Input
Amino acid sequence: MSSLTSLNLGEARAGLRAKRFSARELTEAYIAAMAAARPLNAFITETPEQALAMAASADARIAAGGARPLDGIPIAVKDLFCTKDILTTAASHILDGFTPPYESTVTDKLWQAGAVLLGKTNLDEFAMGSSTTTSHYGATENPWRKSGDNRPLVPGGSSGGSAAAVAARAALAATGTDTGGSIRQPASFCGIVGLKPTYGRCSRWGVVAYASSLDHPGPMARTVRDAAILLGAMAGHDPKDSTSAPLPVPDYEAALSGDIRGLRIGIPREYRAPGMPGEIEALWQQGAEWLRDAGAEPVEISLPMTKYALSTYYIIAPAEASSNLARYDGVRFGLRVPGDSLADMYELTRAAGFGAEVKRRVLIGTYVLSAGYYDAYYLKAQKVRSLIARDFAAAFERVDCLLTPTAPSAAFAIGDHSDDPIAMYLNDVFTIPANLAGLPALSVPAGLSADGLPLGLQVIGRAFDEATVLRVGEAIERAADFPTWMPGTRPGMTE
Amino acid sequence: MALDKAAVAQIAALARIRLSETELEPLAAELSQILGWFEQLAEVDTENVPPMTSAAAIGLPMREDIVTDGECREAILGNAPRAAPGGPAKGFFAVPKVVE
Output
């Protein structure tokens, strides 16, 4: 029943409730699809037995007439979320063999809602990257190919395994995390929907920490509606995360009224980055026209601090990472390399356990926090961060949301940018500002490049106003009519 | 701000990451390039601008000072690369000797 994997989450939920197929049948179809997609290396760990057991529980509840919101929906989980008694790696050698004795709040909520775990997906090591090439478990491939060119492309990152799995129909939806664009940029590269919620909307508890003031768990899905359904299950106050917002969770699906008339859409002129491909500029203008046609009003606005966001991020994120990653010392979990003394053991363990990009960021972070440099780098970056947040606050006095491209390019070849850290960092130039300000931001597939690759548009909203972001995103989705081809059924996209 | 090999070695020692002699030179170049790129922030006037330490608009919540978790020593030690199997150190993480 491979056609089951062509249903989106909303359709699958309806089919399960109408008993047109069982959770077991749906899950078996996805287990087969996950196995068929193995050449993409999207999963670090597959959990088919767990999936079938969870599907059986869902079937029992559906039969008893007590279906939960996500009962029987097979999803993938980024391998940055701790899952009880299931290997959790952060794609790092240093977490070898780590099986958490606890469950992250977000995944626990998903299981409480009835979702089925297919497996844990690949990522850049510790979520540090934009290509899913720095994983200890090897690179993930994008299921898409350029027209007439079969070279493997990156799925984006860091949530590249989740994005590739959803795009390849090897999972109905997935969780991701986004510290500087790690949900939205891979969503753009793989032609799916990715939502970074407001900071504090989804608990960070049990998510392996990269940069705590910037880390945001969120949903990755095939449609805006699917993302809204998933967010409803993932969001909510968690006393175990001191930055979790004690606010009620709206019904995001019900907020998808289809009506965006009268909304003011800010078009930030500073996002016209030098060197941005003309086709991305054209798609952005097209997006503004679609929203105008739907009754919204595009308004040019200014976010003058935009050009400082990237360097601000690359001071703050590594600083927080250098602190968060201090816990990997070979004592309590993961890899240990023996040494003659305790310090020797620490240094050898971290030398062997961390990859090149993680080391680079820990070293940068250590430096910008060190005595004599703290004020010049870290404190300065925190002040510029205030100004970036003020830019957004001023803009949201005039507009209801912002429209920008998600990324400055389509997916690139595996290996590109790998020798130039700053060229790789530039991938996140449009996504990072929303992390610094903590604002909700959605990537929606909006069109194809001349090479036939997906391109996304980004909608940024006011804090805790995911509902408007999703509503505007759905309007773009409807107008774009982005192709939902099955892999292998169209030229340029391989099995 | 250009870093030399000695500065990189010093940072690596602070970060508890052992680097080989051959890694120092390329890292010095890479880190110097990244730090040079940070220099653009100097042109931003941040006089009287407070540092932003969190994106959360809420203050830190308070709760009763009571135990909410625990009694899970074995589960925690279960992930340790080395835990003392028995004797007086049973139930502890094992590390190289730190006191002579």
About this structure: DSSP finds 15 helices and eleven strands in chain A. Chain A touches chain B through 72 residues (CB under 8 Å). The CA atoms of residues 443 and 458 of chain A lie 4 Å apart.
